[in-house]
Amino acid sequence: MIKAIHRIKKFNKQDSFNIFISILPIIVLTFVIILYPLISVFYHGFTNWNLTGAQFNGLLNYKNLINSGNLLLLLKNNFFLLFSIPIQIFLSLIIAYLIYQEVPSWQFFRIIFYLPAVFSSVVIGFLFRTFFSLNGPLNEVFRATRLDLLVVNWLNKGSTAFIVVSIALIWSQFGMAVLIFLSGMGPIEKSILESAEVDGANFWGKFIHIILPMIVSTIEFYLVTLVIIFFTASFGFIYSITSGGPGYSTTTLEYMIYTKAFKSILFGQSSALATILFFIVLVIVIVILRIFKKLGNWEE
Amino acid sequence: MNLKSKKLRNNIIIIIILSLIALTMIYPLIFMILNSFKSQSEYILSPLALPKSFFLANYNTIYNSYKILELFTNSLIIVSASIFIELFLCSLGAYAFSKHNFKFKNLTFLLIISLMIVPFQVLMLPLYVMFSKFQLINTKISLIIIYSAVLIPFALYFLTKSFRSIPNEVLEAAKMEGASYFGIYWAIILPIGRMAIITIFILDFVWLWNELVLSLIFLQSDETKTMVSGVATILNRYLNNQPLLLTGLLLSSIPTIIIYSFATKYLIKGISSGAVKG
Hints:
The complex is a heterodimer of chains A (300) and B (278). Chain A has helices at 2-44, 60-67, 70-82, 84-100, 106-113, 121-132, 137-144, 158-185, 190-198, 203-214, 216-232, 235-241, 253-262, 267-299. The relative contact order of chain A is 0.13. Chain A starts with a helix and ends with a helix. Chain A is mainly alpha-helical and 300 residues long. The model of chain A has no long low-confidence stretch (mean pLDDT 84). The longest helix of chain A has 43 residues, at 2-44. Chain A has a domain at 83-251: MetI-like fold (Orthogonal Bundle), CATH 1.10.3720.10. In chain A, helix 6 crosses helix 8 (158-185). The radius of gyration of chain B is 24 Å and the shape is globular. The model of chain B is unreliable at 274-278 (pLDDT under 50). Chain B has helices at 3-35, 40-45, 57-65, 68-99, 105-114, 120-133, 140-163, 168-176, 181-192, 194-210, 213-218, 227-236, 242-275. Chain B is mostly helical and 278 residues long. Chains A and B meet through helix 1, helix 4, helix 5, helix 6 and helix 7 of A and helix 1, helix 4, helix 6, helix 7 and helix 9 of B.
């Protein structure tokens, strides 16, 4: 008996060693590659870090960013991009609902809609740049159809260039959105919809009163992802479509972190911007999670 | 109008709408393919038309002058090594987190997965400085370490969640028969959890293959670049030759298109099987 207990204890000891071995590498890797640089960025935001060294200079970086109007411009640009999120969610919800009807060949559409997700932001960016260039296909079509009014030099002005970047972003995320919303609609019993139909609910009535409330948590999940994507994954699109220009008119926070660090070699300012970006993303995630928690409670 | 013909009419409308949108999804690919067979002058005259002949000069130029095969090998090595390390470490970790109890388990788990929200643009400068201290800029190792680390939080979360659904009875039975800790990992966890692992593999392969900003920073000389960052920087210097550019873009997307064409089925299954249900 005692021997058996002893053996179990020994076994457990060995188990805890094995557990330690299994989780140690991921802890070390994430701490060294993610946590440590994060803390380093917080600290260096308060220094004049450059190639020669880093000296503490208090809030100077932040003051400079605010006083020069740079920060405001960047935030404005970021929020301009965010405007396309409602469009994106609205469109993909409707498409997901149409596919959910399971008309013949719906599986084919589901696969085709995912296609843009395999292209890199660079490929999509250069494609859109080609498409929207002054003598590009889009303007050619407008000219050929005598809609000369619509011929615009899209990439020459901040506002229209932003529209191109937004469309590229929406296009690239579209398939994933449809797929995720479909997976949310999947478990909904078709019989509920059928009985609603008997009660006289029409096509869109069913969507608003039955489908939408049941996939709130899926929308929540996706909204969080999408906001983070729009704040942190626009780099490739901006790099390939506008390179942040003309001027800084299409430079977002994320793009400026890169420019400040690797073009202007102002590491301190870049760190300050990175700190701001991190806290914006953090706040947005917390706020969105809160809002949806409230919505959920209210439903119960 | 009776119910049946109403349904038929609805279906037709839905199919038309879906087809129109599907066309915008697939057209850019067609556009790239068609124009890769055009010369520059032919493209300028008629960007939307079919190519007049089977013109292969763009492919020749890209193959001979831009060392596309080298870029391809670089990408392949970096992406596969990163994913192998990531999946190996995360599946081991997820096994511990999902099937064993230990001190500070929840705290450690939460700490790691909360790192998911840290954008890597925030990390890139300190990482750059760190790796340049060790002379690792322009090496594949630097990107492999960084890639495998930044992928960990999500993969750990996803794998832990799916490994939890593996019944404990199976593990206990194996233990009774004398299977060791790592024996159970190898013979039970990995085979049963393979759907989740494949899902992560597909998502991360596409993501890493297409990753731009880190590879731009860490691989600066032309011959060390990955396919996507190489195409982005090298062809960026020759923007006026649209067909050449489009050919480069097309070639750089081929691996992910191949993955896509046989893996979407898995991905749809993986995503629908509870990964994102709130």
